[in-house]
Amino acid sequence: MPTFDFQCRKCSKVFEASRPFGQKILPPCPKCGSKRTEKLLTPPAIQFKGSGFYKTDNAKHAAKPKKEPAESAAPSEKKETAPAIDTKK
Questions:
Q1: How far apart are CA 58 and CA 49, in angstroms?
Q2: Of 11, 28, 35, 76, whose CB has the highest number of CB atoms within 10 Å?
């Protein structure tokens, strides 16, 4: 069960209590016993800072497929091949 922070409206005591999600009934104050408590908003227990947890998490750092260089050789430099001969006669 998650733990939430509560504050008593009568004595201003701040305390923690484990409560299931969605439970409407708030816990009583452990100091004065008052049932007039309110749930406090608190920051999450885990914080991620920086550009990313791993380098690959950021789209800018994702591996890009390598492009093959285009053949830029002049026609005179290209190798000529003999035409294929059909031997099935």
A1: 13
A2: 28
Residues in the chain: 89
Q: 0.90 cut: is pTM over it?
A: no
Cα 30 vs. chain centroid, distance in angstroms? 38
- Cα 36 from Cα 8, distance rounded (Å): 6
Question: Collapsing DSSP states into helix, strand and coil, what is residue 59?
Answer: helix
pLDDT digits (tens, 9 = 90+) for 3-38: 899 999 999 999 999 989 888 899 999 999 999 999
Q: Which of 49, 59, 7, 63 is nearest to 31 (CA)?
A: 7
> In Å, how far are 15, 43, 80 from 34, measured between CA atoms?
13, 26, 96
* Cα angle for residues 68, 74, 80 (degrees, 5° grid): 95
Maximum alpha-carbon separation in the chain: 106
> What is the C-alpha separation between 4 and 11, in angstroms, rounded?
18
